[in-house]
Design goal:
The chain is α/β, with parallel strands linked by helices and 458 residues long. The protein contains 15 helices and 18 strands. 38% of the residues lie in helices and 21% in strands. A hairpin with an 8-residue loop joins strand 17 and strand 18.
């Protein structure tokens, strides 16, 4: 039987940039990022590079007429909603692209690619001067600190100097400038968006990694994709910087160099939500069938599962209302939903800072009998002492779990299978079991329950 077609209409964006044979930056990064946002990516290749995670080994610029032919082919056929430019390499190409986008009434995001993350030069001096022509048509320019200094003569070292550099870029013709802070030292990364209305800083924790290949291309493409979807500029930049933080934290370990940012981390994280919630449901059913009443603490038990690239409690699934003891055994109070746990979820997320493979956790009752039963588990059992908790941590709501996880991991040789919190006055003693896989958490918890039962019957 012949089936009817069901075509889907999605926004289209165009990237005009160089090709990265290593797949982490350039056209390849742009198209992956656009697709991850639900935008159909089209391309006009300006340069062909020979590069990998270790650096650029060479590149060749295509003839201007070939670049123009690609742009014309796309713009004459597709309803392009946003344009992003990347590596242009030479002044004639920059001027040609400026002429191409001059007649396009859509947002244009210009990433003034001048130097690769490896330090390799990607733009000649004449090309730098030609960028002024392109800036006149730019909705947003996205230079890093070095590029901003080359273009404006101002070195961004803090919010104030970044704002000055951004204002200078507006004077060169751009509608707005996002001066990126990834190359500026500090514990946090602050990207400063400068418009005629003022400056806004978007702050994210700095990720301790060298795997930032493709980060500039990815951020600019994420902004362009969101503009193509209809976001205003502030919303697009805010969402793109959040997207970038996850892509860098969960970088892909490929090649012999540092690796590349993970363009699909956010998409795959969202795609895993149903499977994650269903895993919690299966674990809970096994606990109900086994009747793990002996492990349920006074505050109730909860099973928490994080999506593969979870960054907040809203990306963890748990039992709403927890699991409690009843006359007939244990039962979940309500169903499984995302964001249902605060305490155990925060602890799991904190533990993931030390081992990002961890995805599952359960809190159990703790006393001397449970401590004896824990010794039967295969793996390290760590703990933290609330008496050593600094007052500054105690005063900050929700920070104890992060502090406790850090203390426990620092005291263990590797990733512990369980972490003991002996409690304090008004705080029940608890042990939390951790696991990377659903079956592992289920097996570990039921093994602890069996050991506890065996100890009680001896």
């Amino acid at each position: 039987m012949t089936r009817n077609a069901a075509p889907v209409g999605i926004p289209v964006a165009l990237t005009i940039a160089g090709s990265d044979s290593g797949g982490g930056a350039g056209i390849q990064a742009d198209l992956k990022t656009m697709e991850a946002h639900g935008v159909f990516g089209t391309s006009a290749i300006t340069n062909v590079t020979a590069q990998n995670t270790r650096g650029v080994e060479g590149f060749a610029t295509l003839p201007v007429e070939e670049i123009e032919a690609q742009c014309e082919a796309v713009l004459s056929d597709f309803d392009v909603r946003a344009v992003k430019t990347g590596m242009l390499a030479e002044a004639p190409v920059v001027r040609s692209v400026a002429a191409q986008v001059a007649d396009v009434d859509v947002p244009v995001v210009v990433d003034p690619v001048m130097v690769a993350a490896s330090g390799d030069r990607l733009l000649d001096s004449a090309g730098e001067e030609a960028y002024v022509d392109l800036f006149e048509h730019a909705t947003l320019v996205t230079p890093n600190a070095e590029e901003a200094e080359v273009l404006t003569g101002i070195e961004p070292t803090d919010d104030g100097s970044a704002t000055e550099a951004g204002e200078a870029l507006l004077e060169l013709g751009a509608d707005a400038a996002l001066v990126k802070g990834g190359h500026v030292p500090g514990e946090t990364v602050r990207d400063v968006l400068v418009t005629d209305d003022g400056a806004t800083a978007f702050e994210h924790p700095r990720i301790d990694t060298d795997a930032t290949h493709g980060s500039g291309c990815t951020l600019a493409s994420a902004v362009a994709a969101r503009l193509a979807l209809g976001d205003d500029l502030d919303t697009a930049v805010s969402g793109a910087t959040d997207f970038m933080e996850r892509a860098v934290r969960y970088a892909v370990d490929v090649g012999e160099g540092p690796g590349a940012v993970h363009h699909l981390a956010d998409l795959r994280n969202r795609a895993a939500r149903n499977d994650t919630a269903e895993a919690v449901e299966r674990i809970v059913r096994s606990f109900v069938e086994r009747d793990v009443s002996a492990l349920v603490p006074e505050v109730g038990m909860n099973v928490v599962a994080a999506t593969p690239y979870a960054e907040n409690a809203g990306e963890t699934a748990a039992v709403e209302g927890r699991i409690t003891r009843t006359l007939s055994g244990v039962n979940p109070n309500r169903g499984v939903r995302f964001g249902a746990s605060s305490h155990v979820a925060r602890f799991l997320l904190s533990a993931r800072e030390f081992d990002s493979d961890l995805r599952f956790a359960v809190n159990c009752r703790f006393d001397a009998d449970v401590e004896d039963a824990l010794s039967t588990l295969s793996g390290d059992v760590a703990e933290f002492d609330r008496d050593a908790e600094p007052e500054s941590v105690k005063e900050k709501e929700g920070s104890t779990m992060g502090w406790g996880a850090k203390r426990a991991f620092e005291s263990a040789d590797g990733t512990p299978v369980a972490i003991i919190d002996r409690g304090e006055v008004g705080k029940e003693a608890i042990v939390k079991l951790l696991a990377a896989e659903e079956e592992e958490l289920q097996r570990r918890t039921l093994a602890l329950h069996s050991a506890l039962e065996a100890g009680g019957s001896s």
